[in-house]
Amino acid sequence: MFMRFEEYATASMLGEPDSPPRVDGKLLFTNRWERDVFGLALSLAKAGCFEWEAFRQCLIASIARWEAMDCANQPRWDYYERFLEALLSVIASSDTLGAADLERVLAARKTAPAAC
C-alpha cells in the first residue's frame, strides 16, 4: 500500500509524545499560523530539506524541555509553540532557511484566525 508523505508523517505521530491536538480525529488548528507552520514543516521535509524523524525528535525534546520547567517559570502550554520551536531548531541545523526569515514570515500570520 502506498501512502502520501503527509499521511505517513501525521500518522507516525499518532499516540506518540509529539502527537498534535485533534478533534474527532482531525488535526486541530486554533490559529492560521498553526496550520501554516504545520504545512511548512511537512513541505520542507517532503522536499528533503530535513528528515521528518529528525524534526519529530526536536519536537519531542521541545515538549520535554517545557515539561521539565519549574511551574513558576513555565509558560502556558501551547503545542504549536513547541512545534514552531522544533521547526526553527531543525531548520537552523540543516541550513535550509534562516530562522529570522521564517519568524518574519510567520509573525504577520500569527494573529489571523484559522480558516474553516
What does this structure look like?
It comes from Paraburkholderia solisilvae. The longest helix has 17 residues. The chain has five helices and two strands; from the N terminus they run αββαααα. Strands 1-2 form a two-stranded antiparallel ribbon. The chain has a domain of 61 residues. Helices cover 55% and strands 3% of the residues.
Can you tag this structure with a few keywords?
single chain; 116 residues; mainly alpha; two-stranded antiparallel ribbon; Elect_transpt_acc-like_dom_sf; Nitrile_Hydratase_acc_put; Nitrile hydratase beta subunit-like N-terminal domain-containing protein; CN_hydtase_beta-like_N
If helices are DSSP runs of H or I spanning 4 or more residues, what is the number of helices? 5
Task: Report the average pLDDT across residues.
Answer: 84
Q: What structural class results from the helix and strand content?
A: mainly alpha
Q: Helicity, in percent?
A: 55-70%
Multimeric state of these chains? single chain
Strand order of the largest sheet: 1-2
CA distance, first residue to last residue: 31 Å
Overall spatial form:
globular
Tell me the β content: under 5%
- The succession of helices and strands, N to C, reads HEEHHHH
Q: Show unreliable segments.
A: none
* Strand element count: 2
**Major sheet size, sense and barrel closure:** 2 strands, antiparallel
How much is the radius of gyration in Å?
14 Å
InterPro entries: CN_hydtase_beta-like_N, CN_hydtase_beta_C, Elect_transpt_acc-like_dom_sf, Nitrile_Hydratase_acc_put
Protein name: Nitrile hydratase beta subunit-like N-terminal domain-containing protein
Domain Nitrile hydratase beta subunit-like N-terminal: 26-109
Organism: Paraburkholderia solisilvae
